[in-house]
Design brief:
The structure is a single chain. By secondary structure, the protein is an alpha/beta fold. Helix content is 33%, strand content 25%. Strand 1, helix 1 and strand 2 form a beta-alpha-beta unit. The structure holds flavin-adenine dinucleotide.
Length: 439
C-alpha cells in the first residue's frame, strides 16, 4: 500500500491521553504500514499536566521533563503537525488549524486543513472562571506549561524583590491565594510551603516564611478535596494545618482585584499572587462544533465506545469528553487516570476499525484510587484493586506510588527500557541540581 492510500487516523491534542494514543498506534499500525497516524498539537513539546503545580512552584524544571513531539513522532512512527485546531468540516472530513505565529506576530505556518478518515479529539480542558469578574485578569491558571513557567518566574521575582528592597515587605507581597481545594490547589499549597523554606536555604535570608509567606486556600465546598473520600481529605487537612496553610471552606470568590480576592460574604483576602484551580471546562470553540453534541462545560458527549453521539468516525477522550459511567450520576471524572485508560482502549478500537471490524469495546472507568502529594512532606491516598480492596496509604509508600503514575505515562510513551533509563538518569541528575529552580 502507498502512504497516500493508507487509512488516516488524526489525533488532535498530544496530552496525557493523546500522546499515549499516537505513540502506541504509531508503534503498531504506523510501524507496520497499516495506517497513517498524525498527531496535531498547538505546541512543540509535551509536559504531563499533573506535573504543572511542581513547575509553578519551581520544584521541577519544565525543560527537563518536556518531550519533543517531532522526536517522539520519529521514534514512534507517526507524523506530527504543529497547529491550533479551531474548526471542523465533518462532511469533507477536514480538521482546520489556525495560522501558527512566531516572534513579532509573524505567520510561521499559514492556516491549513488536515484530512482524516478517523479523528480523535483529545485537547484537554481549560480553567473555568465561571465569568467571575477579575479572575481572567488577575489569577494564574495552570492549564499549560507556559502558564506554570510564568508563575514560577513571578514567584522568583517576588522573592528577589523582597530580599533586596529598601522598604519593609508589604503584608500581601509574598502571599499566595489559591482558589479551589481540589488536588491541584492542595498539592500546590504544600509545594509552595516547601519552596519558601528552600529559598531561605539558598540565601533569601531576609524572608521569614512563618511571618512573611501566607498561603491561603479558598474553597466553595464545605471541605477540602470535595471529590475524594473523606478518609483522604481528613489526614490531608491535618497536614495542611500542620503546615500553617490558611483554609477558608464554604466560601465562594465573587471578585478578584490586583491586591486580593473578595468572597460572597464580604471577606477580603489580600494576596498579590493568585492561582485559580476551581474546576475545568473544554475550550469554548468546541461548543457544538460542526453540529457535534456538547454539554454545558463544552465537552463533547461520547458514547461508551468514545465515539461522539452524532458521528461514528469522530472519537473524543480525556478532559474534553463527557463519557457516561453506568451506575453513577456523574460522567467519568477528568483525570489523567481516565485519559490513560481511554487511550489504551482506543488503541484496540481504532485497530479494529482499521481491520474492518464493526463492533467496538465499551469503556468502563476503573478507579484504582487517588493519591495527593504534599510535596516532600508526605502523600496521602487510597489504592483500589480486585485483590487488595480499598487500602488507605500515607507516607513514603504513597509518595512512591504517586511518582509511579508518571512513570506509567513515560512507559506508555517510550517503552519499558527507555522509561527505566530515564528514571535512573533522573535519580542521578537530581543529586547535582538545586532542589528549587533559581532562574
Ligand atoms: C496541576 C494539575 C495537577 C493534576 N494532578 C493530577 C493527578 O495527580 N492525577 C490525575 O489523574 N490527574 C491530575 N490532573 C488532571 C490531568 O492532568 C488531566 O485530567 C489530564 O491531563 C487530561 O488529559 P487529556 O489528554 O484529556 O488532556 P491534556 O493532558 O490537558 O492535553 C491536552 C493537549 O491538547 C493540546 N491542545 C489544547 N488545545 C488545542 C488545540 N486547540 N489545538 C491543538 N492542540 C491543543 C495541549 O497543548 C495538550 O498537549 C491534574 C491537572 C493539573 C492542571
Amino acid at each position: 500500500m502507498t502512504v497516500a492510500s493508507l487509512p488516516r487516523i488524526v489525533i488532535v491534542g498530544g496530552g496525557a491521553g493523546g500522546l499515549e494514543l499516537a505513540s502506541r498506534l504509531g508503534a503498531t499500525l504506523g510501524r507496520r504500514g497499516r495506517a497513517y497516524i498524525t498527531l496535531v498539537d498547538a505546541t512543540l513539546t509535551h509536559l504531563w499536566k499533573p506535573l504543572l503545580h511542581e513547575v509553578a512552584a519551581g520544584t521541577l524544571d519544565s525543560h527537563e521533563d518536556a518531550v519533543d513531539y517531532l522526536a517522539q513522532a520519529r521514534w514512534r512512527h507517526f507524523a506530527f503537525r504543529l497547529g491550533r485546531f479551531e474548526g471542523l468540516d465533518r462532511k469533507q472530513k477536514l480538521v482546520h488549524l489556525v495560522p501558527t505565529l512566531g516572534g513579532g506576530g509573524r505567520v510561521v505556518i499559514p492556516a491549513r486543513s488536515i484530512p482524516y478518515d478517523l479523528l480523535v479529539i483529545a485537547i484537554g480542558g481549560v480553567s473555568n472562571d465561571f465569568g467571575i469578574p477579575g479572575v481572567r485578569e488577575h489569577c494564574t491558571f495552570l492549564d499549560s506549561r507556559e502558564q506554570a513557567d510564568a508563575f514560577q518566574n513571578r514567584l522568583l521575582e517576588n522573592y528577589l524583590r523582597a530580599q533586596t528592597q529598601p522598604t519593609p515587605l508589604r503584608p500581601e507581597q509574598l502571599n499566595v491565594a489559591i482558589v479551589g481545594a481540589g488536588a491541584t490547589g492542595v498539592e500546590l499549597a504544600a509545594e509552595l510551603h516547601h519552596v519558601a523554606r528552600q529559598m531561605v536555604a539558598y540565601g533569601f535570608d531576609r524572608i521569614v516564611p512563618e511571618r512573611d509567606v501566607r498561603l491561603v486556600i479558598i474553597e466553595a465546598a464545605e471541605r477540602i478535596l470535595p471529590v475524594l473520600p473523606e478518609r483522604i481529605a481528613k489526614p490531608a487537612l491535618r497536614e495542611l494545618e500542620r503546615l500553617n496553610v490558611t483554609l477558608h471552606t464554604g466560601k465562594r470568590v465573587e471578585r478578584v482585584t490586583p491586591e486580593g480576592l473578595f468572597t460572597h460574604d464580604g471577606m477580603h483576602i489580600p494576596a498579590e499572587m493568585k492561582v485559580w484551580a476551581a474546576g475545568i471546562k473544554a475550550p469554548d470553540f468546541l461548543r457544538e462544533i460542526d453540529g457535534l453534541e456538547t454539554n454545558r462545560a463544552n465537552q463533547l458527549i461520547v458514547r461508551r465506545t468514545l465515539q461522539t453521539t452524532r458521528d461514528d468516525d469522530i472519537f473524543a477522550l480525556g478532559d474534553c469528553a463527557s463519557c457516561p459511567r453506568p451506575g453513577h450520576e456523574r460522567p467519568v471524572p477528568p483525570t489523567a487516570q481516565a485519559a490513560h485508560q481511554q487511550a489504551s482502549m482506543l488503541v484496540r478500537s481504532l485497530t479494529r476499525r482499521i481491520m474492518g471490524k464493526a463492533s467496538l469495546p465499551e469503556y468502563v472507568y476503573r478507579d484504582y484510587g487517588s493519591l495527593v502529594s504534599l510535596s516532600e512532606y508526605t502523600a496521602i491516598g487510597n489504592l483500589m484493586g480486585n485483590l487488595t480492596g480499598d487500602i488507605r496509604l500515607e507516607g513514603w509508600i504513597a509518595r512512591l506510588l504517586y511518582r509511579s503514575l508518571y512513570r506509567m505515562h513515560q512507559r506508555a510513551l517510550f517503552g519499558t527500557i527507555r522509561m527505566g533509563l530515564i528514571t535512573a538518569a533522573d535519580m542521578l541528575t537530581r543529586q547535582t541540581r538545586p532542589r528549587t529552580k533559581l532562574h
